[in-house]
Structure formats: structure tokens, C-alpha cells
Design a protein that fits this description.
By secondary structure, the protein is an all-alpha fold. The chain has 20 helices and no strands. Helix 2 runs antiparallel to helix 7, helix 8 runs antiparallel to helix 15 and helix 15 packs parallel to helix 18. The longest helix is centred in the first third of the chain and has 30 residues. It is globular, with a radius of gyration of 20 Å.
Length: 397
């Protein structure tokens, strides 16, 4: 393990930081301002879900071509572009003009640069440059996102006591400016790193350059795609409408703030467990267990209300975050190799972003139409079962 950390510590720091700052475009962060945004624009749950879904869907479509640039341009340039993008998006939330089109544009930018492009950069870089240790590398880098989940909600909830949401987003934008110089320090030897990476690729399969058209016509892609994007659909829907769910279960907002600590801690536990497991065992068999924590989550929502099961719910919610990232991050590198990983993961990130766009819309209108947790759990359960059984049905190696 010591050799792993000494192999390229600066690149691990880069991965940690860029995935941490991607938090500003993640649903868990944006949803903290759900009530204030809906009040500002006089929107229902379903209407805000619609705006969120359309903006996120557009970002997922454009992400397909943008994200694969990481295969063709210097990582420093790619990272600088997406960092400036998320900075401007956060700055836009500071102004938050009254016109609904402005909200749409800002949500699009947050999702495109944050959840999409920055997360893509961190995960793809770890999977590409750490070889057989990619599972551990993805886990360590993703700790940045888990730290964001643990502490950003608590920080925001406390800041809301003295600052407006506009001012909180202004603070967020300035923290991005502090990140950009660190980015270039962490990637100072990127040219040599990439040259060494190219030299290490000797396996013919890993040298194959997959084009987007080839990937989307390959059956393996569709066999594992539902399994990879199901967590985005379900967990985003639950998180985006967490205030409705908490009200239905009788759980308080104070519990939510404390619960995010559990989400973060168990996300880290999932990463620490998932990374070494995926490096040691058969990836394509191991990933079939990836949605089990999410299944436990929705089962708790269906059957239990008391405080003890709130704790269990948040723990398994976090475990789902932690385990799925190294599991699915390593899966696609194993299937398609690492040289074209940016192209492949661009499609995956686009699919994940699209899935995360649909669930706030679907769950939001279900709420508006009077449906409750039972319907949400039923839909989520069907998705989990189908996604897990599909690779078994196809019997791919």
C-alpha cells in the first residue's frame, strides 16, 4: 500500500481535489437550496424537477463530445476549462436573476461542468494512469467527493443562518479560484507522465482506439450500462426530493444535516472496501453486487420510520456511493482498455447525467400527482432487479 501512495502522490491529490469541487454541481449540494430556489421562482416540486431534468439532459447530450476531449488534449488544459466553467456557474447562482431561463442556464452549467466534466476528469485520470491499482486510485480520489458530501451540507446549513443563498454561492465560486493554482501544481509533470503511460501500453487490446460509434454498437456496452447508471437515477431522485421524503417519514432537517456525516463516513468505508476488492477479484462478477446497498435503502423507506432506521438508511446510502464508484470505474477500463477510456466514459457520464436528469422529473411529478414513497420504491426496485439480472442473462465473460 505504501508503494501505491508513493507511485504518483501529486496525481492522487489532483483527483481528490477535482472530484471535491465537482460537488458544487452534484444534486446533494444543489438540493440544499431546493426550497429557496422554488420560492424565488414560484415553482412546485414537479416544475423545478422539470427545469432540472431538461437542463441536465442537455448537459448529458453535449457531454458526449466534450468529455472525450480528455483523450486528445492535455489534461491541464481540459481541467482548466472545466474549472473556469464551474466557477462561472457558481458565480451565476450569486446573481440568480428572476427570469426562469437564467435558472435553466445555471443548472445546465453546474451539471455540465461539475457533475459531468469534473467528475469525468478525476475518475478517468485515476483509471488511466494507475494500471492494476486503478480501483484503489479511484477510491482515494473519490474521497474528495465524499468529504464534500460529509461537510458541505453542514457548512451550508450553518451559513444559511447568517447569509443568503446568493452569498453562499459567491463564497463557493471563490473557493474554485483557490483550486486552479493547485491544479497546475499537481499536474506540473503531466507531459512526462503521459509519455510514460503511452510506453506502458503493450497489450494489443489496450492499444485499440475505440470510436464513439464502435462503442454504442457493441453489445457489452448495453449489457452493463443499466447497472452503471441505475445508481445515478435512483440516488439522485431520492436526494433531490429528500425534503419530501423526510416530511413523509417524520424526519427533521436537523437529522438531515447529521445524516450527511454518516453518508460521508460510509461512502469512505465503501471506497476503502470497494477499491481493493475490485483490484483483487473478477470485476464483471463483483459489480453484480454493487446495487445491494441501494436495495437496502429503498427497503427501509418502504417499511420503517423511526430514527434508528433513518441512521441505517443514511449509512447504506453512503455505502452505495462508495462502492459503486470503484466498481464501475474499473469495469469499463477492463472491458475497453485505458487508451480510449475518455471516449467510453464520456458516454457513461452522459448516460449517468441523463439518468440523474430523469429521476427528479419523474419523482417530482409523481409527488405532484399525489403518489408517495411506495410508488418511488416500486420503480426503484424494478430498476435494480433488471440492471442486476441483465448481465447474468447475457452470460458475458
Amino acid at each position: 500500500m505504501k508503494n501505491f501512495f508513493l507511485y504518483d502522490p501529486k496525481l492522487l491529490i489532483y483527483g481528490f481535489l477535482i472530484i471535491f469541487f465537482a460537488s458544487y454541481g452534484q444534486t446533494f449540494f444543489i438540493s440544499l437550496f431546493n426550497i429557496e430556489i422554488r420560492t424565488h421562482y414560484n415553482l412546485t416540486d414537479g416544475q423545478f424537477g422539470f427545469v432540472y431534468a431538461v437542463a441536465t439532459t442537455l448537459s448529458s447530450i453535449l457531454l458526449i463530445n466534450f468529455a472525450k476531449l480528455i483523450d486528445y488534449i492535455d489534461l491541464r488544459l481540459y481541467s482548466f476549462i472545466v474549472s473556469i466553467g464551474i466557477f462561472l456557474a457558481c458565480l451565476g447562482m450569486f446573481f440568480l436573476f428572476k427570469h426562469l431561463a437564467f435558472l435553466f442556464f445555471i443548472i445546465f452549467a453546474l451539471r455540465f461542468f461539475g457533475q459531468g466534466a469534473m467528475s469525468h476528469a478525476g475518475e478517468t485520470t485515476m483509471a488511466r494512469y494507475f494500471g492494476k491499482n486503478r480501483g484503489k486510485a479511484i477510491s482515494i480520489a473519490t474521497l474528495g467527493g465524499m468529504i464534500g458530501v460529509m461537510f458541505l451540507p453542514i457548512i451550508v446549513i450553518n451559513l444559511m443562518k447568517n447569509y443568503s443563498i446568493n452569498e453562499i454561492w459567491l463564497i463557493a465560486s471563490f473557493t474554485i479560484l483557490l483550486f486552479i493554482p493547485l491544479l497546475f501544481i499537481a499536474l506540473s509533470n503531466q507531459s512526462r507522465r503521459h509519455v510514460n503511460f503511452k510506453k506502458t501500453i503493450s497489450n494489443e487490446n489496450l492499444n485499440k482506439k475505440w470510436k464513439t460509434r464502435e462503442v454504442i454498437t457493441n453489445s457489452k456496452f448495453y449489457t452493463y450500462l443499466p447497472l452503471s447508471i441505475a445508481p445515478s437515477f435512483i440516488s439522485t431522485g431520492l436526494m433531490f426530493h429528500q425534503i419530501f421524503i423526510f416530511n413523509q417519514k417524520g424526519w427533521s432537517m436537523e437529522m438531515l444535516g447529521k445524516g450527511y456525516l454518516l453518508v460521508g463516513l460510509f461512502s469512505i468505508a465503501g471506497l476503502l472496501i470497494g477499491g481493493p476488492i475490485i483490484d483483487k477479484f473478477n470485476t464483471r462478477k463483483t459489480v453484480l453486487t454493487g446495487l445491494f446497498p441501494l436495495f437496502v435503502c429503498i427497503s427501509i423507506l418502504l417499511f420503517f420510520d423511526n430514527y434508528f432506521f433513518f441512521i441505517i438508511y443514511m449509512c447504506f446510502y453512503g455505502l452505495n456511493f462508495g462502492i459503486t464508484i470503484p466498481f464501475f470505474g474499473a469495469l469499463w477500463a477492463e472491458i475497453y482498455g485505458v487508451e480510449s477510456l475518455g471516449t467510453v466514459k464520456a458516454l457513461l457520464h452522459a448516460g449517468g447525467v441523463l439518468a440523474s436528469a430523469l429521476s427528479p422529473l419523474v419523482f417530482g411529478y409523481l409527488i405532484d400527482w399525489g403518489f408517495g414513497i411506495l410508488t418511488i420504491v416500486f420503480i426503484s426496485g424494478l430498476i435494480i432487479i433488471f440492471s442486476t439480472l441483465l448481465p447474468l442473462y447475457k452470460k458475458l465473460p
